[in-house]
Design a protein that fits this description.
By secondary structure, the chain is mainly alpha-helical. Helices cover 68% and strands 2% of the residues. Helix 1 crosses helix 14, helix 2 packs antiparallel against helix 3 and helix 12 runs antiparallel to helix 13.
């Protein structure tokens, strides 16, 4: 294809080529999966405005501050968006932590403990500060407007600073990921060889992915059920800009450690071998999530029924179904990309190279586009599609521009 014929992907910089080279080869399926999950994140934040039965619009300055999850609520809905957000919520952040853990072992081997930590502090800490400090207030300004606030930066700033915490939006993932990396680095410092031991533990997962799957389900259920029973599945802990879903934080760490273990065994080998049993039996994993997802829906229905089962039964049953749904959905996605992605084309390469920046910036576009489309009578499906496409393209273009700046280019 001639240079310049496709402006969205033609200008691939030297930095992009370096990133693509790292992602390419045997890691091409993982790079593509990472980009796909980023698109799921954008879709998730898009369609929340059009899901059925959202919480009512409340006072911006009064608890429970539900606008943090639903910045814009459009009266035009699309019923199936509710199912999309439910399924997404069951696995996509867990899978992001798993993917993020895959390259930790290689980083430790190449850079050492100090080098890995300093590199992750720059790549995760600096964007977290920028995203939480600048992008989050910009993204939540439409929530202030829809709650009845006037078009006044001073009024919004006063209300924002009076909040009991500093909402960081999707950037919460960055600080948690940085903390997980610090914990693993500390473990490696205290007990050198522990990362390689994790790799040996999962070696052979290419031949027996079911055994790895079973271990992951058990570990995540053990991590999740006590936390969910203690805090409820909807509870979030907030301390300044540091926010995390309390019931899932240990579960997320399990997935991160699982990624570290798989990466220690070798990315492109073991579980992530494109010639392994997981990839070859990809079709079987597509059906695996059906029953667990139905089980999650059944638990939700029972929980809100006039005569719900005892709380302990809901906690255990819901926790087991969540662990199964999360693992089966994650394995289904991983198996599909291992089976079908063999190389990276120019559009996909640009998407993969810019996925991180798109994750950081997309929330501004999803909220503002949804707010701008409020007067239109297109229906929830059309609006959701328009916002998703618009937010994807705008965050993509913005990231390509930001990555041409010397400092941001190195970080992004």
């Amino acid at each position: 294809m001639r240079r310049g014929s496709q402006p969205m992907h033609a200008p691939i910089s030297a930095t992009e080529r370096s990133t693509i080279a790292q992602i390419g080869g045997r890691n091409a399926p993982i790079g593509a999966l990472r980009a796909f999950v980023t698109l799921l994140v954008i879709a998730h934040h898009t369609v929340l405005a059009y899901t059925p039965n959202p919480p009512p619009i409340g006072d911006f300055s009064q608890a429970p501050y539900l606008w943090q999850a639903f910045p814009v609520r459009d009266p035009q809905k699309f019923e199936l968006f509710g199912l999309l957000t439910l399924i997404n919520d069951l696995f996509f952040m867990s899978l992001m932590f798993f993917i993020s853990g895959l390259f930790v072992a290689d980083g430790l081997r190449a850079k050492g403990n100090g080098g890995l930590l300093s590199g992750r502090a720059a790549r995760l800490g600096v964007p977290f500060v920028l995203a939480a400090g600048l992008l989050a207030p910009l993204a939540y300004f439409p929530a202030w407007l829809q709650a009845g606030g006037d078009v006044s930066i001073a009024g919004f700033a006063s209300a924002w600073l009076d909040l009991p915490s500093w909402p960081s939006g999707p950037a919460w993932f960055l600080w948690v990921l940085l903390a997980f990396g610090a914990i693993v680095t500390l473990l490696n410092l205290i007990a050198p060889g522990v990362i390689d031991a994790l790799g040996r533990l999962v070696r052979g997962a290419d031949r027996k992915p079911g055994l790895f799957f079973l271990g992951l389900v058990i570990a995540s259920a053990v991590a999740y059920i006590p936390m969910s029973a203690t805090f409820t599945f909807m509870h979030w802990t907030q301390l300044g800009p540091f926010t995390v879903q309390t019931s899932r934080v240990v579960h997320y760490f399990v997935y991160f450690l699982a990624g570290v273990a798989v990466g220690a065994a070798g990315v492109g080998q073991g579980l992530t071998d494109s010639e392994g049993k997981l990839a070859k039996r990809w079709w079987a994993w597509q059906a695996a999530p059906i029953l667990p997802v139905v089980g999650v829906i059944a638990v939700i229905i029972m929980a809100f029924s006039p005569k719900p089962p005892p709380r302990v039964a809901l906690d255990i049953g819901g926790g087991v179904m969540f662990a199964l749904a999360c693992a089966t959905l994650s394995f289904a996605a991983l198996a599909t990309f291992l089976r079908f992605v063999k190389k990276t084309g120019p559009v996909a390469a640009s998407l993969q190279a810019n996925a991180y920046g798109m994750y950081l910036t997309h929330y501004v576009f999803t909220t503002w586009l949804a707010w701008l489309l409020l007067p239109q009578a297109w229906g929830g499906l059309a609006k959701g599609a328009a916002v998703f496409v618009g937010a994807t393209l705008l965050s993509w273009i913005l990231t390509m521009a930001l990555r041409r700046l010397p400092l941001l280019g190195r970080i992004l």
